[in-house]
# Entry
Amino acid sequence: MNSSHTTAGVAPATPSDRALELARTLVRMNTVSANSNLELIHFIRDELARLGVRSRLTFNAEKTKANLFATLGEGKPAGVILSGHTDTVPWDGQVWSTDPLAAEVRDGRLYGRGSADMKGFIGMALAQAQRYLESDSPFAVHFAFTYDEETGCFGVRELIADMRDAGIRPLACIVGEPTSMVPAIAHKGVYRWRCCVRGKEAHSSLTPMSVNAIEMAARVIGGLRDMAERFEREEPRYPGFDVPYSTVSVGQFHGGIADNVVPRDAEFRYEFRNLPTADAQTMQDEVLAQARQLEQAMQKVMPEAGFRFEPICAVSSFLGSADDPVTRLAQRLSGESRTTLVAFGTEAGLFKDSGIQTVVCGPGSIQHAHQPDRVVGRQVQPHPEDEAQHGHGRGAAMLRITEQPGRDEHERKHRDVEARMH
# Structure
């Protein structure tokens, strides 16, 4: 269902100089998930304060990171959230042709980490703040900018809880992740676990007196692989996804101290990427059942032996509809007539789970995300050489812009926010 077809009559648009200036400013701020994002959050807070807009900040436990929630149109009924995350992935070990934080403009393109995912989107939204305030729309526009999305969507949970506690009930949410401006109505969930295995060490000549933690871990890992193969063979397909079934993979493994020592400890990490129609907890229950069965034999040798499972992240799958009013709103805003599904996880599932109608739609392509030389291009339609690079890992990540003033007063304020989302 991937599409780049545009609605008739919607011309390609370019970002304003102000949007580019703001995007460059944000890219220059190092907000890799391991770092604080407060410089960026305070910058946005201060920009909005100049317009008379108050921001609500919610912090992590260490007060080193914050979410920002702001309402443009205070006093109006709650309207549509424009949502973006402020953190980026690191670039250690990657070869860039330019400094990832230089925000260099070259050949009409902005190069930098986070330019498409998602600082370009945030910069464009911020550049439109004055117009939102001056609009006669009967509904407010909300900004929701979060921390630690890349590591597990941790910040948005605090933001949603604060919004709920404050009695703020928006009608809808547009998550501006890079979808090439094609509204995405579904994505898989992402659930990651750490498994720590405790055995009993011994000299490798005395294996019957030991519990080999690596071997026990390997049995569970084998079970995970069996599960993955079963999904590939048997799970009902969900057309539209690049991989139309749930997947299971092991990403890290650590264990052992020497060749002649039966290892006491082992640790591995794994993930489920479940279809919106599949239940990740059922998958985890299957893993737990196998581990408990293995523990029976392990504990005959060492009563303290066993498995310990720790959740790393839980990102809900997302399932919207092409018929949702927020999807139709996104289509009208973007000029795209079709919808798509995406394989990557976003905060959309968490907004949807909280009762807010949601769609994922934003500039740039995930094909080039998290790679060197991510760029923002100052045009809506892809440059010919970007089409040639598509899917070949060269990091073009063209950002398509949708600043389109006029057009019948934005089609009567987008039909009064799609008739108040029905």
